[in-house]
Amino acid sequence: MLKPLPTRPRLAPQATNRIAIVASRYNGKFVEAMLAKAVAEIALIEPHTKTEVIHAPGSFEIPFLASQLIKLTKPDAVICLGVIFQGATGHANLIAASVSDSLCRLSVESHTPVIHGILLLGNEEQARERCLGDDLNRGTEAARAAIEVIRSARSISNHSS
User: Fold this and answer.
1) Domain ranges of the chain
2) So which residues are the catalytic ones?
3) Residue pair 82/62 in contact by the 8 Å Cβ criterion
4) Mean pLDDT over residues 4-11, rounded?
5) CA 51/CA 61 separation, integer angstroms
6) I want to staple 137 with a disulfide (CB 3.0 to 4.6 A). Which of 37, 115, 127, 157 is the partner?
7) What value does the mean pLDDT take over residues 72-95?
8) pLDDT at residue 1 above 60?
9) Average pLDDT, the chain
10) How far, rounded to the nearest angstrom, does the alpha carbon of residue 10 sit from its chain's CA centroid?
């Protein structure tokens, strides 16, 4: 069952975060729609935040590029966007599981929020519902999550000082 988007974080017009987005070119019709919504949402909530977009050939390559971005550019967060369709074999499940594990490990080990917006879907109808709409868009959701995690992490850091 689809759930509505989480509440938009409060607007912070003075915030100057750096958010990187790694988006898959594979199933680009759906991924590009999520990407556009993510970029628009970041610009709305934090207009001075710098957003850098890097494209990967497919979802499997996203963890590597996210790791390189963290290592070389040290963004405040990385949003990863992709769409994987379930096929007749188990290949999609293997890719999705590997990517999920890699992104989780990367986030914890690098101390950088990595937002998992790579969807494993059964068909194009599911993709349309989650990627192309305005009311429910996983790109918007990923942008909101990135901003909230950055803010929460800073809050933790400020409490420990």
Assistant:
1) 18-160
2) 91
3) yes
4) 78
5) 20
6) 37
7) 95
8) no
9) 93
10) 19
Amino acid in position 160:
S
pLDDT at 158: 74
Token pair, residue 3, equals 């759930």
Q: Which CATH class is domain 18-160?
A: alpha beta
Helical axes 28-45 vs 138-160, angle rounded to 10°: 40
Choose among 124, 134, 137, 136: nearest CA to 79: 137
Cα separation, 60 vs 87, in Å, equals 16
Tell me the pTM: 0.94
Q: Which of 31, 151, 146, 9 is nearest to 81 (CA)?
A: 31
Asked if 114 and 77 count as a contact pair (C-beta separation under 8 A), the reply is yes
Choose among 15, 117, 8, 21: nearest CA to 77: 21
Residue with the bigger pLDDT between 160 and 147: it is 147
Strand partners, 80: 22, 116
